[in-house]
Each structure stands twice: as C-alpha cells, then as structure tokens.
Write a structure and sequence with these properties.
61% of the residues lie in helices and 13% in strands. It is of the alpha+beta class and 187 residues long. The protein folds into two domains: 2-69; 79-186, OmpA-like domain (60s Ribosomal Protein L30, Chain: A), CATH 3.30.1330.60. It has a four-stranded mixed sheet. α3 crosses α4 (126-146). The chain is globular.
C-alpha cells in the first residue's frame, strides 16, 4: 500500500514535468507560463502529500511493530521460573529467550535488582541440594551478566530442597522443584 501511494505521487510528478517540458517552447505567452507553473506546484504538492502519507504510514507501522515487540518482551519478562534437568545446573534452551529478556531489562534499567532463588528436588542430602540450588542460580547469574546485566543487580540465594514448589515424590513433582526463580526486588 505504501508503494502504491509513492508510485501515484511519482506518476503525477512525472506527468506534470512532461506537460511542462512539452508546453515550454519559448513561444508561449506569459499566461501559459503561469499555468505551467501552477501545474508544477500542484504536482509538487501532490508528491509532497503522497510522501507525507507514506512516511506517516511507515511511522504507524513502526509504532505497531514497536507495540508488538514490547508485548512480546513483556511476555518473556513474565516468565520467572526456569527448570533444570536432574542433577544439572546447565540452562535449558527453552529458557534462554526469557533470560535474555531479563538481561536486557536489567541492562537498560540500572536501578533494577533481582534475587535468583535456586532450588532442588528432595533426592540427595540437604547439603548437596543446597549446593546444587546455588550452582543453578549462579549459572543463571552468569548467563544474565554475559547478556549485559551487572553483578550488582543480581543476588544469588539457594534454598536447596527446603521450599518445594510441589510436594510429592513423583517424577513430575521432582521436575517442578528443580528450578531457579527470578524475583525482582525493584523494577
């Protein structure tokens, strides 16, 4: 649609120039020259109007895109729980986009602060699970810092197996308890 308006404006301008060039042979009377000048002005105004319309449509398109990007970014920021495999502290691919959004937010808002709460399921000793929760939270902190967050913005805490998200001794419950939660202290 933007190209169509631009093509119309160019067509009008080209037509006006063609009429002006053909009509101006030097033998014309003064009045004919004034009519040609008026035609040129109308063509220029039409071209300017079409260009302004194209620029306006382009700005509106950028605004809508920006709004869509903001909504997508906010949806990623709403993801605050990141899950881990059994006895692992490596971040899953499925969580990296959301973590990147958190890192971008932290990088652009230096006053924002978060606490990363590391958790583990009940299998293993309490000491081991406390250390595992800490390793998981540290892995997330390192990821955030690699993407632009400052170390002063990110605090790490481990609860090990002490604060399960789900009680029970099933594989599903275990999977939901192996996590790091992002908690904003100030946004």
């Amino acid at each position: 649609m933007q190209k169509t308006a631009l093509y119309k404006a160019l067509g009008i301008a080209f037509g006006a120039l063609l009429v002006t060039a053909c009509a101006n042979n030097g033998d014309l009377e003064e009045g004919a020259g004034a009519a040609t000048t008026a035609t040129e002005q109308q063509a220029n105004e039409a071209a300017d109007s079409a260009t302004t319309g194209v620029e306006s449509a382009s700005l509106q398109g950028e605004q809508m895109m920006s709004d869509a990007e903001k909504a997508a970014q906010q949806a990623l920021l709403d993801i605050t729980v990141f899950y881990f495999d059994f006895d692992q502290s490596s971040i899953k691919e499925s969580g990296k986009a959301a973590l990147s959004a958190h890192a971008a937010y932290l990088a652009s808002n230096s006053s924002a602060r978060i606490v990363l709460e590391g958790h583990a399921d009940e299998r293993g000793t309490p000491e081991y699970n406390l250390a595992l929760g800490e390793r998981r939270a540290i892995a997330v902190r390192q990821f955030l810092m690699a993407k632009g967050a400052s170390s002063s913005q990110v605090k790490v805490v481990s609860f090990g197996e002490e604060k399960p998200a789900v009680t029970g001794s099933t594989s599903s419950a275990y999977a939901k308890n192996r996590r790091v939660e992002v908690k904003y202290q100030s946004r």
